[in-house]
């Protein structure tokens, strides 16, 4: 900390003590607010010069600007709705209080009472009759924070970012509206929001590495959930036909512009539906969110023009590979492994054919899909919880939704055959025993639930953070998380390009 800044901090603490000495507590318990900044503009925006509000109002907020000295001075305060100008004058406030008024700093929270008028320049202003210091700011706001290019500092001190950059706050307001819209959309269609455990005895529901913890009283390890899928399916067994859960999931993986170790996901399950019906639901949900929150379906994201107007393209994974110049049809195992080696797939001689196909897709197809596209019919080997395709051996009824080179949703016709599911989980257990940290666990309780009978169903998972990224044109997932995970300042930070590649290796 520089000597200059230390002096500034010292001066602010001295002012705090002076307010106390003058009988004004710098951290009072409350203040009676009658109006917001936006509310004042709506109510009194039509005032003419020399007109005043008929009665006093009270408004509170953070001081963002100050100007003027002597017997009168202006300031701007900011509340949750916007900004409004205030005007303090010696002969109105009184000598003793005006002396304290002049000691207010940028960053302080203040509550003011007075009448509303318009200045000669037409700016709506509150003439301060009385004021209260509501919170003394002991740390000055940075002068050049707005437009700061060091985004890491803005992520670390998001509270400052939100104070001085209204456009950042607006992103999170839109995020909240999107989340609210999704809930209302599903509830209007008869879905019930539920809650399932975040601490799991076994990892399951997705191919991902978990975070592990330990419960002292039970004397057993537990995992932070990587997905709520297996518990939500238990609810289908129990008789709930339309359920969804929105909440945090945790994956012990790399970081990039589209990955954070914890993120928000919604999972949706509908009895008696298959992946075709879920595809339609996905399209309707996202289109509805865009239309209601943005008022349009043509948007921009990371420099791409995206058209969300339905219907969206549907293409099989196999045909998508063909469009990318990789035709695996009729190649056989040896032929596919040969293509994989030519394309630089690591471990092409050891990993399964399904994984090879996924790697080729991830590398050569997904990044190049800009417009909304459903990639349907995936390899059986990589989808242990999905129903086998009704007409394509070796594949499952699964789709992924890709927008702007990024997976936003994943869905299945859900596997409800307990014998088939047991066989596939047994294979996963063998992979886990061989060192595959992302393989599914052998969950006997889930299998027992399936043996009681689960109706045919379609299931869907949507990454809320990525959806918000697309709908608000934010380049990084960290731009739509209030407090993204960061390395401690004491540690050497990787270069931006290294962060981008952490999860791609």
Outline the structure in words.
By secondary structure, the chain is an alpha+beta fold. The chain contains 16 helices and 18 strands. A hairpin with a 5-residue loop joins strand 4 and strand 5.
Keywords:
disordered C terminus; 35% helix; alpha+beta; single chain; 505 residues
Write the layout of secondary structure elements.
Layout: H1 3-21, H2 37-44, E1 57-67, E2 72-79, E3 82-89, H3 90-93, H4 95-102, E4 109-118, E5 124-135, H5 151-156, H6 158-164, H7 166-188, E6 192-193, E7 199-200, E8 211-215, E9 220-224, H8 229-237, E10 242-250, E11 262-271, H9 275-294, E12 298-301, E13 304-307, E14 313-316, H10 317-323, H11 332-342, H12 353-364, E15 373-379, E16 395-403, E17 406-413, H13 418-433, H14 444-452, E18 457-463, H15 464-472, H16 496-502
Parallel strand pairs: 3-5, 6-10, 14-15
Antiparallel strand pairs: 1-2, 1-4, 2-3, 4-5, 7-9, 8-9, 10-11, 11-18, 12-13, 15-16, 16-17, 17-18
Helix pairs in contact: 6-7, 7-9, 7-15, 8-14, 11-12, 13-14
Number of strands: 18
Q: In what range is the share of β-strand residues?
A: 15-25%
Characterize the biggest β-sheet: 8 strands, mixed
Structural class, judged by helices and strands? alpha+beta
How many DSSP helices? 16
What portion of residues is helical?
A: 25-40%
Strand order of the largest sheet: 6-10-11-18-17-16-15-14
CA-atom Rg in angstroms: 29 Å
C-alpha end-to-end distance: 39 Å
Shape field = elongated
Please tell me the overall pLDDT. Answer: 92
Uncertain stretches of 5 or more adjacent residues:
494-505
